[in-house]
């Protein structure tokens, strides 16, 4: 259930801009299995289990790699306030490789790194965090989740907002907060914007802080009200279920009677609208969706094939089962490797609905891109799980290295065949859902002037006892959906018949074609390391945390590219604007982090001149990535933990789990998927400072900002 429980996605050093003192500081960032961004003072603070500085839930954020992109979004957020040319912008970056997390309502986070390769890797990791956190409403719930999203969509339609919505992301409280801010922000901008004083940059900075403060207040109030509503629903649930079971036949009869009346009224108008405004464009929309999506799924297949083939060649070169556990443990996390999966995800960037986007009121294609990317990750994970389960079944029958390699090749071919059929099914379902998502709001908007006002008269057809179970508006939308569903199903079927983009007809799927597939039920995940590597004794929790494997390999060792480790600085105390400096720093300690932009640039220049050539003993990232699959030597980037001197930190425990109390007496607070914005951890031994509006105090002594 938690595939990355004993792993971290990535960890490493980067610079963060601290707005309070307007300085850049070196931070150690950890991305645990729940995809929260956790920022520590330095790596030592993480290893000692000291509280993190900041926890970020990245739902709703955009990852930017250009200051110009960021400045454009900031200028658009407060119309009429634009810095004059020649004036210093709101943000200066000390390197050419910024990473900025931008949110339309919440506070922004500014980072930078020293090389383009680091920037690309962190960008892939950040985007994976955003993708995961955006998908915050559990899909396991077959009733509550659709009911919630339908309620949000209908509310927006009542405000004349049809079409897709970019901010339907995060958990339920975050979605509702975004819904409130969508209406509240324009009013705030009109009221407060003209009263802001100072230079353009100061007004922009103030506006971002005001928006963030309001967003946190909205989040707090929304969370309390949503929790109360959910508690009320739960109380009424048993009574409603009892009524449904008792009166099911009558409810169904009443619903069918209502649907027939609405169908007779709406369907003729809807069919004309579909014929004139939707039908001519379905094939164009489908083609625009199919090309990048199918390329992305083909890339998933290629990445999986390459990883397994490379593993097989390495086993031939290095020797059988001894290395199999190491390679299989790496392969089992392939679907959650942001950098390797980025090649697949990037294919969706080609998705364009130009012309169609304006016609059908599609504000952005990001909803469809993200949905397809989530399907890609799931299909990769399914393929890896099938492969490792079938291989595990075969291991007991194998005689030697040659048998092992032949079995791997045979199982790979079987899994690829299964993947082709599975991905075809998933893509066809995705295309149907996307077409409905695009066309249904358009039809509802077109039909609203003639149909919406007449719906009230159908309410009298529903018995009062059944009014909670049969809703006129839902039945009306079902009728509209039926009017276009036939055309959508036909368009997807024709694409499959023509074998466009490697889609298969449903009749071609061969059921029970593999006698071993019934053995692939949900079972306990295979622990390759424990089962085959022969580790003697269990490690303590602290050692396990320190030595936990990392999904993405490190780029460099800690003392190579980022020399400004903050080991000589004390932790920032609450209320203190700057870290405490040691009076007599150790001459052998690494230099403290430079503060200003100019100082960092000078330090970087000195470092680039003084940096030694890489040692032949430690392979660089370029060497590790460029190892040819056909080479007789083992692939260097597979056993990354053995190659790099960096010991990857362990994943923090899941939210709500008990953590061992650290020796320093600090509470080590973990990121939660249910929180938004940042959390600032305070020492448990100190009293908390007075809390500003929009913050709460948890029992752990952690000030949590929403």
TrEMBL record:
Gene: Fam129b
Pfam families in UniProt: Niban2, PH_Niban2
Region Disordered, annotated ranges: 528-706
Organism, scientific name: Jacana jacana
TM region(s), chain numbering: none
Organism phylogeny: Eukaryota, Metazoa, Chordata, Craniata, Vertebrata
Biased composition (Pro residues): 646-655
Family, similarity comment: Belongs to the Niban family.
Gene3D superfamilies per UniProt: Pleckstrin-homology domain (PH domain)/Phosphotyrosine-binding domain (PTB) (2.30.29.30)
Biased composition (Polar residues): 693-706
SMART domains named among the record's database cross-references: PH
Domain PH per the UniProt entry, residue ranges: 7-131
CDD domains (alphabetical): Niban-like (cd23949)
Stored InterPro entries: Niban-like, Niban_1/2/3_dom, PH-like_dom_sf, PH_domain
The name this protein goes by in its record: NIBL1 protein
Biased composition, class Basic and acidic residues, residue ranges: 634-644
PROSITE patterns: PH_DOMAIN (PS50003)
């Amino acid at each position: 259930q938690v595939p990355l429980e004993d792993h971290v996605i990535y960890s490493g050093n980067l610079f963060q801009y601290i707005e309070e003192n307007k300085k850049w500081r070196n931070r150690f960032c950890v991305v645990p299995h729940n995809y929260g961004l956790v920022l520590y003072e330095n790596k030592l603070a993480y290893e000692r289990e000291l509280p993190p500085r900041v926890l970020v839930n990245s739902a709703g954020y955009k990852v930017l790699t250009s200051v110009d992109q960021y400045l454009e979004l900031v200028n658009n957020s407060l119309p009429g306030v634009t810095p004059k040319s020649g004036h210093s912008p709101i943000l200066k970056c000390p390197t050419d490789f910024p990473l900025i997390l931008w949110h339309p309502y919440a506070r922004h986070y500014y980072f930078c790194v020293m090389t383009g390769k680091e920037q690309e890797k962190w960008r892939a990791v950040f985007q994976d965090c955003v993708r995961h956190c955006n998908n915050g409403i559990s899909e396991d719930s077959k009733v509550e989740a659709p009911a919630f999203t339908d309620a949000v969509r209908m509310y927006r339609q009542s405000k004349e907002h049809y079409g897709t919505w970019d901010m339907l992301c995060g958990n339920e409280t975050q979605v509702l907060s975004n819904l409130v801010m969508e209406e509240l922000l324009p009013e705030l901008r009109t009221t407060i914007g003209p009263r802001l004083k100072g230079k353009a940059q100061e007004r922009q900075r103030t506006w971002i802080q005001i928006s963030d403060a309001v967003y946190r207040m909205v989040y707090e109030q929304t969370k309390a009200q949503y929790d109360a509503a959910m508690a009320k629903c739960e109380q009424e649930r048993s009574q409603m279920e009892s009524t449904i079971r008792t009166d099911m036949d009558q409810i169904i009869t009443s619903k069918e009677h209502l649907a027939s009346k609405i169908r007779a009224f709406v369907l003729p108008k809807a069919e004309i609208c579909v014929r004139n405004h939707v039908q001519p464009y379905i094939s164009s929309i489908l083609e625009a969706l199919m090309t990048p999506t199918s390329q992305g799924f083909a890339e998933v297949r290629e990445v999986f094939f390459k990883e397994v083939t490379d593993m097989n060649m390495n086993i031939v070169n290095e020797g059988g089962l001894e290395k199999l556990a190491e390679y299989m443990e790496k392969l089992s996390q392939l679907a959650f490797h942001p950098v390797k999966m980025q090649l697949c995800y990037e294919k969706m960037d080609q998705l364009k609905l130009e012309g169609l986007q304006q016609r059908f009121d599609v504000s952005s294609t990001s909803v469809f891109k993200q949905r397809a990317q989530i399907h890609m990750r799931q299909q990769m994970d399914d393929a890896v799980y099938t492969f490792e389960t079938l291989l595990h079944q075969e291991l007991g029958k194998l005689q030697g290295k040659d048998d092992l390699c032949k079995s791997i090749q045979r199982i790979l071919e079987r899994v690829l065949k299964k993947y082709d059929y599975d991905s075809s099914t998933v893509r066809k379902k995705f295309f149907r859902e996307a077409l409905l998502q695009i066309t249904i709001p358009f039809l509802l908007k077109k039909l609203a002037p003639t149909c919406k006002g007449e719906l009230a008269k159908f309410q009298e057809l529903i018995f009062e006892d059944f009014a909670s179970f049969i809703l006129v508006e839902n039945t009306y939308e079902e009728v509209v959906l039926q009017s276009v569903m036939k055309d959508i199903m036909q368009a997807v079927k024709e694409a499959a018949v023509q074998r466009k983009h490697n889609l298969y007809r449903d009749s071609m799927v061969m059921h029970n074609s593999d006698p071993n597939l019934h053995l692939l039920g949900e079972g306990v995940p295979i622990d390759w390391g424990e089962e085959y590597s022969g580790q003697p004794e269990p490690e303590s929790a602290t050692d396990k945390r320190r030595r936990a494997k990392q999904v993405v390999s490190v780029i460099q060792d800690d003392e190579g590219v980022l020399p400004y480790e903050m080991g000589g600085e004390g932790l920032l105390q609450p209320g203190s604007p700057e870290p405490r400096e040691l009076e007599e720093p150790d001459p052998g300690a690494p230099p403290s982090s430079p503060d200003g932009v100019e100082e960092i640039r000078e330090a970087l220049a000195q470092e680039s001149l003084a940096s030694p050539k890489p040692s032949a003993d430690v392979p660089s990232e370029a060497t590790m990535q460029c190892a040819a699959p056909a080479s007789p030597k083992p692939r260097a980037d597979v056993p990354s933990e053995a190659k790099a001197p960096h010991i990857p930190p362990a994943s923090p425990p899941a939210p709500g789990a008990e953590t061992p109390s650290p020796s320093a007496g600090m509470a080590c607070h973990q990121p939660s998927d249910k929180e938004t914005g940042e959390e600032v951890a305070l020492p448990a031994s100190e009293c908390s400072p007075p809390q500003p509006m929009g913050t709460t105090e948890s029992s752990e002594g952690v000030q949590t900002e929403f």
